[in-house]
Design a protein that fits this description.
InterPro entries: Cof (IPR000150), HAD-like_sf (IPR036412), HAD-SF_hydro_IIB (IPR006379), HAD_sf (IPR023214). Pfam families: Hydrolase_3. GO terms for molecular function: magnesium ion binding; phosphatase activity. With 260 residues, the chain is an alpha/beta fold. It is 31% helix and 23% strand. It is built from nine helices and 13 strands. The termini are close together.
Length: 260
């Protein structure tokens, strides 16, 4: 019996084409809550960007920053997993040697970026968000940094995570950048924190996603559903592949499993 369902935002709830949530998905969320099934967000977005995308809809709780920050519908913290300060210090040194590489830092309900290039603009356009304010990287010191976003490609991962962010790991859902969180955090770990808080068993859950950062939770939830617009790698991690976000994928999967 499904008691809780976790939804990614970009490419799952929100279409990359229309930048909106399909009407069928909004109806599905409403019907789920009417049946007493709890619905949760599980996103790589920070709180400051999440509410712009889904804040008009009611959810029972939120997993943000790929599991690094989990909180209730009334914004009571369930879990926070910060990036170690020693990693921040090494990244400040690294950026002084590679000032062309933009980094975003998320702390509390704020965020900032070190510099802006074409990759930053392309990603902002893709998910229709505003750019964070530009500030010196040194402002990351002495703050509770919950996530970093690095605008470098995957072939640089070995250098960055072996020598600089040694206590962190990347979560990629788009090739131009990586969401970076403290090692041990993930959407699947975020699910565990939320389920413990609400007293729900893992076997009674579903999760929907489309990106590489969704792979841990799709394999972890009782039923993992990949959107039809997901990559082959994401689809392989899921129990079921539904249609795309623009083809009523969420509603179709919920009907397939008899949840609605």
């Amino acid at each position: 019996m499904v008691k809780a369902i976790f939804f990614d935002i970009d490419g799952t709830l929100v279409s990359f084409n229309t930048h909106s949530i399909p009407e069928s998905t909004q109806n599905a969320l409403k019907q789920l809550r009417e049946k007493g099934i709890k619905v949760f967000i599980a996103t790589g977005r920070p709180k400051v960007l999440m509410m712009d995308a889904v804040g008009h809809l009611p959810f029972d709780g939120f997993i943000t920053l790929n599991g690094a920050h989990c909180f209730t519908s009334d914004h009571q913290d369930i879990y926070k997993g910060r990036v170690p300060e020693e990693d921040i210090e090494r990244l400040i040194d690294y950026h002084q040697q590679h000032p062309e590489t933009p980094f975003v830092f998320v702390h509390d309900d704020e965020w900032f970026i070190t510099n802006v290039n074409e990759a930053v603009k392309d990603v902002a356009k893709l998910i229709e968000i505003s750019l964070p304010p530009i500030r010196p990287i040194e402002e990351a010191r002495n703050k509770e940094i919950l996530q970093i976003m690095g605008y470098f490609k995957e072939d640089q991962d070995l250098e960055v995570f072996r020598n600089v962010l040694t206590h962190c790991e990347p979560m990629r859902w788009y090739p131009l950048f990586a969401d970076i969180i403290a090692r041990g955090n993930s959407k699947s770990k975020g699910i565990d924190h939320v389920l413990e808080y609400y007293g729900i068993d893992l076997k009674d859950t579903m999760a929907f996603g489309d990106g590489g950062n969704d792979i841990p939770m799709l394999g972890h939830a009782g039923i993992g559903v990949a959107m039809g617009n997901a990559s082959d790698e994401v689809k392989a991690a899921a129990d079921y592949v539904t249609t795309s976000v623009d083809e009523d994928g969420i509603m179709n999967a919920l009907k397939h499993f008899g949840v609605l």
